[in-house]
Amino acid sequence: MNGVWDDRANKHDESALCINFVATASARINQYERGKHTPDVLMATHLARVLNIPLSYFYAEDEGESELLLYYYRLPVRRRKQVLRLAAELAVG
Question: How much is the pTM?
């Protein structure tokens, strides 16, 4: 009987640890979103991987730039080259 209790206690401890981690991470992400704190490059890299977005997204200067970065990131390489050619044409007039 003690073995079952120990297993349950360990699972409870693991669950509590996970809940605490999620709550802490959620609060921290909220602070990033509100601009109260800025993630360091390592944290931003991890977030970008998890969210499947480019790291540069976190450093965009405005909404338009961040939107463009997301679209570009989701394109296959061939289409990215097309976008770059079009952008070059538009930039020179």
Answer: 0.64
